[in-house]
Amino acid sequence: MLKRPLAALALAFPLFAAAEPLPVVASFSVLGDWVREVGGERVAVHTLVGAGEDTHMFQPAPAAAQQLARARLVVMNGLGFEGWMPRLAQAAGYKGELLVAMEGVEPLRAGAERDPHAWLSVGNAIHAVRRIAGSLCTADAAGCDEYRARAAAYTTRLQALDTEIRAAWSEVPQEQRQAVIPHDNFGYYARDYGVRIWAAQGADGESEPSARAMAALVRRVREGGIRALLVEPLEGSRLMAQIARETGLPISGKLYAEALSPAGGPATSYEAMMRHNTRTLVEAVQGVAKPVDVPHHDEHDTHHHHH
Fold it and tell me: Is 52 within the bounds of a domain?
C-alpha cells in the first residue's frame, strides 16, 4: 500500500533539493555571514565587499551590478555605511527589497556622523538577524519555517555569545577597562560591554590627528594607566606605532571592526570576530597579551574612509 507514494517521494525529492537557491546579495562580510546562518542551503549569498576589504573604499565594478540585477533580496547595514548602495541598486535595475538591517537601531555618534559599526553590539546583531529572517520569508514564503527556525537557533547562539563577552569583562576591574585603537569604530562594543575606548584618529577618519591631539592622547595613556594599544588589519598602524614609541608600550593585538578576516584568519565568522576581539582586548588591558609586530606605515593610512 505504502510502496508507491514512497517511491514517488524518492523521485520527487532530488528534484526538490536541486531547486535553485534564492540569490541574495549582502553588502559586506558580516551581513553575508548572518544571511548564510539564517538562509542555509536555500540561499546563495554573494557578498559585494569581501572579507578583509574596506567597505568605505569600495568601487562598484560591473560585476556588482550584475549580481544585484539577479538578486531576489539585497541586504545592507545602513547608518551611512554603504553610501554607494542606492545608486548601485538603481543602476543595476534592482526592483526587489533593499533591506536595511540596522533600521530601528538607536545610532551612536562618531563625531558629527552616525557611527555605522552597529554590529559590534551582539544585541544589534540579534535585531538584524530577525529582520533578515523576515525579508527572506517575504522573498521565499515556502522556506519561511526553515528561516525562522534557523534564525531562532542562531539567536540562541548569539545570546550565549553576549553572555560570554559580559562574563569575560566581569573579571576585569573597571579602571583597567580602557584601550586605544586606530579609529572610532568600537563605540557600540564599548557601550554594551563597559569599556572605555580612545581612538587615535578621532571620529573624523579623513584627517590626521594634530600634533596637539596626539600629545594629549599620549598624556592620557601615561596618566590614565592605559596598557592596551591595538591595531586593525586594514589601516591605522602607523599612528599606533607612534603612540607605542612615545609611551614605551607594546602593540598588544589586532582587532576586527570593519570586516571579517579572510579564510585562515581569527575572525572568519561574526561569532569568531566577536570572540577574538573580546579575548584580544581583555588580554591587552590585563597586560598579558603577547606583543605583535606592526608595520610603521600602510597604504590606507593616508586616505582613510569618510562615512
Answer: yes
φ, ψ for residue 73, nearest 5 deg: -150, 140
Alpha helix ranges (H) inside 186-259: 187-193, 211-224, 237-247
Q: Edge-to-edge strands of the sheet including 251-254? A: 196-199, 178-181, 228-231, 251-254
Is residue 47 within 8 A of residue 31, CB to CB? The reply is: yes
Asked which of 132, 164, 196 is the last residue of a domain, the reply is: 164
3-class state of residue 86 by DSSP: helix
Q: Is the pLDDT of residue 206 over 70?
A: no
Given a contact cutoff of 8 angstroms between Cβ atoms, the answer to whether 188 and 105 are in contact is no
- Is 2 a domain residue? no
Beta bridge partners of 28: 49
* Residue 132, domain CATH: 3.40.50.1980
First-to-last C-alpha distance (Å) of the chain:
66
Range of the domain at 63: 13-164
Q: Alpha carbon of 209 to those of 13, 215, 226, 242, 281: distances in Å?
A: 62, 10, 19, 12, 23
For the chain, the domain total comes to 2
Mark whether 112 and 84 lie in a shared domain.
Answer: yes
What pLDDT, on a 0 to 100 scale, did the predictor assign at position 13? 52
Instruction: State how far the Cα of 98 lies from the Cα of 131, in Å rounded to an integer.
Output: 12
226 belongs to a structural domain: yes
- The pairing of strands 43-49 and 22-28 is parallel
CB 54 within 8 A of CB 281: no
Tens-place pLDDT, residues 16-54 = 555 799 999 999 999 999 999 999 999 999 999 999 999
Residue-wise pLDDT for 48-107, tens only, equals 999 999 999 999 999 999 999 999 999 999 999 999 999 999 999 999 999 999 999 999
Pairing outcome for strands 109-110 and 113-114: antiparallel
Reading the block at residue 68, the C-alpha cell is: 544585484
The answer to whether position 239 is within a domain reads yes
